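Entry type: protein chain
Record version: 2
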Amino acid sequence: MNIKTTCRAAALLIATAIATPAFAGDTQVSGKIYFDYSSASKTVGNVKTTNIGGNLTRTYLQVKHKLDDTWTATFKVDSAYEVNNKKKTGVYVKTAQLSGSFMPELNVKFGVIGTPWIGHQEHLEGHRYITKTFVDTQGLDSSADAGIGIYGKVADGLFNYTITEVNGKGYGDIKRGGSQDLNARIGFAPVEGLTIDFGFRDGYMGAKTTTQTPTTGLTKYTLTQAMVTYGMGHDFRVGADYIVDNAKTNGASTKLKGLSVFGWANLTDQFGAFVKYETAKLSGAAGTLKKMTGRATEKTTVVSLDYKASKKVLLSLAYTDIKDLHGVSGDKERIAGVYSQFKF
């Protein structure tokens, strides 16, 4: 879908929501914007570049309509800066989802749907406007994709799950291929404040076609994750996520192991702090795995001081330091600035 078509569709949905009183109680229109004013300094080899200025990393516009007591339709447009885009800003349909709620234990969704892991971890970390999750940063998973899924909560929320079959390339490229990827998460909440999650993703990430049989030359990815977090409401939360992604091509395996540790706390009603530390390292057969190209351990530190300007506005002074960028010894990147999230 091109930009003009997307904008017209969004405008039509919004106009319908506003102009039709009968739908007012069943239709929600919302938006969210991530903007930062920052300085980024990157060293690759012997070349150092520094850029400063405003950066619009994400804008979201969502229309959600309850069709009846069972079915809900959700449409979300996502725009972001893209280096390879001629006009530098790409617009995508991130969500075009029909959800069916039958009982707490079993619900269905299909269309362009949210994937099981990234959105869940973003909610727990609470600082997506500053930093992505590990698997999103490394290109190991996408936050949405075309496919089908089931999800639910069992035993009064003690156990929860989301299981999906998706095309594999993410919402930026939803065309069909020769196979589907399994993308799933199983979670437990044994006591108040404690979350335990296991994630599994397996497939060719959209690269396999019906003409590629056998799969010589194709790479199959198997991603597993385990995450534990603990927190109390809006006061604080700490967590750790352990990640292993195995890429197998013609019998040779390249493995990426990662660890992401985070914590945030609201010090007062308006002020808070956030910190995250991540490591990523390749092993196994020679080659790359998505964004990791070298064999050094990439180390990322993110810290921020947060200010809740209003119920809808978050402002942060944030600093990100990446050593051995993409696993290349000596390469690095440092980013410092004011970050914001505002929504309606």
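Comment: Helices lie at 3-19, 118-125, 134-137.
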